[in-house]
Design a protein that fits this description.
Largest sheet: 5 strands, mixed
CATH class: Alpha Beta
Structural class: alpha+beta
Oligomer: single chain
Shape: elongated
Number of domains: 1
CATH architecture: 2-Layer Sandwich
Distance between the termini: 80 Å
Strand order of the largest sheet: 3-4-2-1-5
Length: 118
């Protein structure tokens, strides 16, 4: 009276309901990120201290590009400014107030960039 059967005969997937279909292909569920050319992107360059314990950072917003593109641009900007930086939520953050250097550099690369804020 052995009533226990192994899951291998039935398959291991015991999903009863799935709203978005098959999860075997995670690439199908990713959102497509538009990688627009620089001349079609409107960027805002802003220096802020809010939420950073008094430290000033320069934030560049408005990117519509792939993470690889942002990482390459971040490296160039860090070299230009001689400061650290990171990519967060499709924005680039550079340590310090470097708006005067960054805006002309982005315009030279073909981006539509404007300084924002005080």
């Amino acid at each position: 009276m052995s009533s226990s059967k192994s899951n291998s005969s039935r398959g291991t997937d015991r999903t009863v309901y799935s709203e978005f279909g098959n999860h075997d292909n995670p690439e199908a569920l990713k959102r497509a990120v538009p990688d627009l050319p620089p001349n079609q992107q409107n960027l805002r360059v802003e220096a802020t201290r809010s939420g950073r314990k008094g430290k000033t950072v320069t934030i560049i917003r408005g990117f519509q590009a792939k993470p690889e593109t942002l990482t390459d641009l971040l490296k160039q900007l860090k070299t230009l400014c001689g400061a650290g930086g990171t990519v967060k939520d499709n924005e680039i953050e550079i340590q310090g107030d470097h708006r005067q250097k960054i805006v002309p550099f982005l315009v030279q690369l073909g981006y539509k960039a404007k300084a924002s804020g005080g």
